[in-house]
Design a protein that fits this description.
GrpB-like predicted nucleotidyltransferase (UPF0157 family), single chain, five-stranded mixed beta sheet, 165 residues, 5 strands, transferase activity, transferase, Beta Polymerase, domain 2, 47% helix, alpha+beta, NT_sf
């Protein structure tokens, strides 16, 4: 079921705690770990799951990343249909989050950052996005693929605006 909740001011610290848990094991492989998605935008309503992206210089490092994450309880799930972005299961003892790995030069990752950063600096657009998400969550309550697809036009428009600037 798709649930959208009001912004939780604990999301940044939840991100930081997961990031800190990953930093040591991924040292030397990961350039940085970014807080992405709606929980990374202060004040934005979101699904209550923090999204993190670990950025590697090249996906050649992916096998080593998979090996270092396995002892922490993460299992590689492949790209889940998003080329260039690799997903991992969340360990049962961890707070709710989605962990992804992508290369620093991945165009899709650049779009994710552009969207996040635009919403952070344009509160009216962030509010409009929240309203859309509430509406779509009601409409597509049990259809995550439909919910995601229905947000695409809005997201693509904002990414186009953000990358033109």
């Amino acid at each position: 079921m798709i649930e959208i909740v009001v912004y939780d001011p604990r999301w940044p610290s939840l991100f930081a705690s997961v990031r800190d848990r990953l930093t040591g094991p991924l040292t030397g492989l990961v350039d940085r770990i970014e807080h992405v998605g709606s929980t990374a935008v202060p004040g934005l309503a979101a699904r209550p799951t923090v999204d993190l992206t670990a950025v590697v210089e090249s996906l050649d490092h992916l096998p080593a990343v998979i090996g270092r994450l396995a002892p922490l309880g993460y299992c590689h799930e492949g790209d889940l249909g998003v080329r260039g972005r690799h997903a991992f299961t969340t360990p049962p003892d961890a707070p709710p989050h989605h962990l992804y790995v992508c290369a620093a030069d991945d165009p899709g990752f650049a779009d994710v950052l552009a969207f996040r950063d635009y919403l952070r600096t344009h509160p009216d657009t962030a509010r409009a996005y929240a309203e859309l998400k509430y509406f779509l969550a009601e409409r597509f309550r049990d259809d995550r693929a439909g919910y995601t697809a229905a947000k695409s036009a809005f997201i693509n428009r904002i990414v186009a605006t953000a990358t033109r600037s």
